[in-house]
Write a structure and sequence with these properties.
2 helices
Length: 86
């Protein structure tokens, strides 16, 4: 039987990132910190030579104005092709 993992405090989330390189894991952690306030990250070796990074984020406080994925994935108005263009 597995030991139960302690839950983070209300309003917080534990995020685990597994990547092939430490730089890739840090990029993802930095992006999360742009959306949510967070604590210090902890890094560990991952099986197979990768990196495992643990980060606690405070979901009740945003670090910057959070924008939805849809809003940030749309091209700026007027930047796309016009309907009459092929």
């Amino acid at each position: 039987m597995e030991a139960e993992e302690a839950l983070p405090p209300p309003g917080h989330a534990e995020v685990r990132i597994v990547a092939a390189t430490p730089d890739a894991a840090r990029v993802v952690a930095d992006l999360l910190r742009h959306c949510f306030a967070g604590g210090e990250q902890r890094s560990y070796p991952a099986p197979g030579g990768g990196t495992r990074l643990h980060l606690t984020v405070d979901t009740s406080r945003t670090a910057e104005p959070a924008r939805s994925w849809l809003a940030t994935s749309r091209p700026p108005s007027g930047a796309g092709p016009h309907s009459e263009e092929p």
